[in-house]
Amino acid sequence: MQLAIPALVFRMIALNDMRETDLRFVAADCVYKLFGAAVLGVPVVGERLLLRRRGGGRARLGAREFMAAHVALTLPNTFILGVPILGAIYDPRLVEQYMSLLLVTQSCLQFPFIIGFLEYGGVQDEAVGDAQAVALPEGDPIQPQGGGDPELPEEGVAAPPPEEGTPVAAVVTGLPSAVGPSRGPSLHRRVSMAMGLIPDRREPAARSPGPPKTPVSTARKVFSKVVRNPIIWSAVVGSVYSVLAQNFSWGMPKVLDLTTSMLGNCTLGLALFNIGLFMFGKPFLTCSWKQAVGGGLLRFVASPALALLAALTVGLPIRGEGATLGKLLILQAALPQAVVSFAVAQEYKTYPGVFSTLINTTTLGSIPVIFFVYFLLEQAS
Length: 381
Prior knowledge:
Elements: H1 4-14, H2 23-53, H3 63-74, H4 82-87, H5 92-121, H6 123-135, H7 168-173, H8 187-194, H9 215-227, H10 230-248, H11 254-265, H12 267-280, H13 289-314, H14 324-333, H15 340-348, H16 352-380
Helix pairs in contact: 1-10, 1-11, 2-3, 2-5, 2-13, 3-5, 3-13, 5-9, 5-10, 13-14, 13-16, 15-16
């Protein structure tokens, strides 16, 4: 898995013919994410303005709450589940072509934005949380704001390195081994390793505020995490190779073609199996029912609705001739929650219990929801 997923990403992007790509699809996806940020930003800004008018007070909605909702709204499982599910509805080659484009935008644009926002935008939340934590008496069950879900224990803060003999798939994918209990790093650290989110192995101070963050230090930290993500590298290299191959009429070398083909053919099956292990290895509900229902509504209702609005905004048809791409955009917005969202949530303490539950519930409920949305789109045509 350490090489299989980047190899498949590279192959899907490298074989794309950009000259036959409708860039309105990518533009609509970007507008869809911007619409999501604008809609979710309204209550956050409104609360701050209301508190300022009242003369001060503590805001309940901060950077972590905003980004948690934004990730739940705009980060579907485009690659692992989107390709096989949507490929069964539309032309598989067309689905691979445009899902790979979305993977490029997620890896190169959305992922750095999420990390940068949480690194820099959460500084004030951390300061408020630390100040309140110091004021709380020992044993008070109240959790500081932005501290994550009390139902899900923190793990992997000072995890030891993997021992010799730990299965590679478990280390890379962040999922429990099928052979037996893992003696290697914890779930948090293994998922973080897969996406370049390597946590600090030193024990943090229990109640001491962290050092002040500046835009420069934040940019350096985001850059260091981005460059450690193998999927981003495969997306960038695949995009460059695709452009060069089209301009100079290159064919993929046979050795590279066979290698990436063999690795890619086993990737989706292993990834789906690992998602099953993830769901089996954790409690089904690790947050409140209110949070679970709210997250499900964001993923299955608000997300396709915003995708529909974005398609209409950029002129991507959703009915009549040439409506396939518009329907594809809306259906991919109704896909299950991406597994990487749990890694980000666990790393930055942004409600990991909610995302663990969302991955479980949306994965199980995705098939009927997608076919219901497909039925509505076909009836509208």
